[in-house]
Amino acid sequence: MGRKGFEFMNMSMVVAVEITLVQCLCMWWCSTGSKVPAIIVFGDSSVDSGNNNFIPTMARSNFAPYGRDFMGGNPTGRFSNGRIAPDYISEAFGLKKAIPAYLDPAYNISDFATGVCFASAGTGFDNATAKVADVIPLWKEVEYYKEYQEKLRSYLGDEKANERLREALYLVSIGTNDFLENYYVLPERRCEFKTVEEYEDFLIGLAENFFKEIYGLGARKISLTGLPPMGCLPLERAINVLEYHDCVEWYNNVALEFNGKLGWLVTKLNKDLPGLQLVDANAYDIMLQIITQPSRFGFEVAGRGCCGTGRFEMGFMCDPKSPFTCKDANKLYFGMLHHQQKQVK
Length: 345
Description:
By secondary structure, the protein is of the alpha/beta class. The protein has helices at about 10-30, 85-90, 110, 125-130, 140-155, 160-165, 175-185, 185-190, 195-215, 235-240, 250-270, 285-290, and strands at about 1-5, 40-45, 115, 170-175, 220-225, 275-280, 300-305, 330-335, 340-345. The N and C termini lie close together (about 5 Å).
């Protein structure tokens, strides 16, 4: 047996983490008077604003009760009951309140000129991770970005477009699926990389290549979000029966170790690439604080998802008519977390 898991977020959880990210980013750029004319997003379900709606995959959230607290109450493909972190960050920089998905045909280059999302739920640094749920691999996100650049130059002209691409803020949030949906679930990578430390180093190499590539394409201001306390995600706790559904500490230790390597990479790239401003916007600590002390931050529950029973976090349970779907997502830290599927490998 194997499992697919796509971790989804409560809007209140997003706001809590987003406050930390905005403070970090504003201290970096706002204090220097730098302008941010656009927000450009790469990553996984934590920042996907709906691209998976337009590819043949099961990893979608384009149905109720998703989006019930979004503008208009519509499910947009965001894995949340409301807006996600890039939306809030965009608004904090005086731009639009919601960043559109690049593959959504309802939008065009005039909409994307101040913000665009290439992220795909279920993807990772590792191309093999994207194959698990047939989603967009990171290399393809970059190809879409190149296509976007050409459209932007046709729309604004070369000089203005290149300036916008250079001054834009790039948000990157990715990596959790590489461990929880690939390395620890499927045998191929574990056969190739005998220890998780070796796999981490492999991912760091992929991450370095990614950042160098988008740097070569003009990106200069980049925020990298590391791994969350992934052992405390609802599904991981649900199946941790022997430890009474507590957080899986060794998953958290892997996240900490990998985040440390990402921090090393940030330092290295800032030194090696002239003009690069890569920020390590690590939200691990604040997320763990909220998970371990939810009442301190205004939450009642931090151990299960809005669409789960506390024992199983399954996608089919996230339905407006399901008795297991919570009435008030704001009470749960992982309020609109769902879509945990099981399948035979």
